[in-house]
Write a structure and sequence with these properties.
It contains 6 helices and 12 strands. With about 190 residues, it is an alpha/beta fold. Helix 1 packs parallel to helix 6. It is globular, with a radius of gyration of 14 Å.
Length: about 190
C-alpha cells in the first residue's frame, strides 16, 4: 500500500453531499492504504444525494467537524453537492479546518461545488483551479484563475490545491489526490 501511515480527513454536512463525490475518493484512498476519516457536522448519518435531487446512500461519519483537528491528518478532501457545499462554506468548523490545513502546507482537495469553501476561507485567491462551471464567477471574483479541466493541481501558491469539476472527473480527482500524497510521503 503506497499511502500506509497517511491519514485524510473528509469534510461533509449531514445532508446533501453528492454520493459519489463522498464515497469514491474515500474508497480510492483506502485502497491505496490511507486511513480516511469522515467528519460531519453532527454525529448522525450522512444522507447523500445523487445529482442533487435523488436520495443516495447513507454514510456513517467517524467524527464531527468540531472534534476534528487538522494536525492529526495529512490532507483534506471536500466533496461537492450543491446543498453540502453551500452549507459547508458557512460552517465555522469547516472554515477553521480548511484554513488550518492550508496554513500547515497540507494538501487541500475539493470537487464540483466543494471549491465554494475555498472562497469563504480566502484560499482561492491567486490559485489556478477548477470547479463545477456555475462556480466560475464566484471563484474568479475571489481572485482565482479558473480553468475548464477535469483536474487541476496547483502547487505554486503554497499548499497543494487539487480541484475537479464534477462526478465524471472522480477518477482523475482521486488519482491526483493519491499521487500528491505519494509525492509528499517520499
Amino acid at each position: 500500500m503506497t499511502l500506509d501511515g497517511t491519514s485524510v480527513l473528509v469534510l461533509t454536512t449531514n445532508y446533501g453531499t453528492e454520493q459519489d463525490e463522498l464515497k469514491k475518493p474515500v474508497e480510492v484512498l483506502r485502497e491505496a492504504g490511507a486511513r480516511v476519516t469522515v467528519a460531519a457536522q453532527r454525529r448522525e448519518p450522512v444522507r447523500t444525494l445523487v445529482s442533487d435531487r435523488r436520495p443516495g446512500e447513507v454514510v456513517e461519519p467517524d467524527t464531527t467537524l468540531a472534534d476534528a483537528a487538522a494536525e492529526e491528518y495529512d490532507a483534506v478532501v471536500v466533496p461537492g453537492g450543491t446543498l453540502n457545499a453551500d452549507t459547508l462554506r458557512t460552517d465555522e468548523d469547516a472554515r477553521r479546518l480548511l484554513s488550518a490545513f492550508a496554513a500547515a502546507d497540507k494538501p487541500v482537495a475539493a470537487i464540483c461545488h466543494g471549491p465554494w469553501l475555498l472562497v469563504d476561507t480566502g484560499l482561492a485567491r491567486d490559485r489556478e483551479l477548477t470547479s463545477y462551471p456555475s462556480l466560475r464567477p464566484d471563484l474568479e471574483n475571489a481572485g482565482a484563475r479558473w480553468v475548464d479541466r477535469e483536474v487541476v493541481v496547483d502547487t505554486a501558491g503554497g499548499h497543494p490545491l487539487i480541484t475537479s469539476r464534477r462526478p465524471d472527473d472522480l477518477r482523475a480527482f482521486s488519482g491526483a489526490v493519491v499521487r500528491t500524497l505519494e509525492g509528499r510521503a517520499g
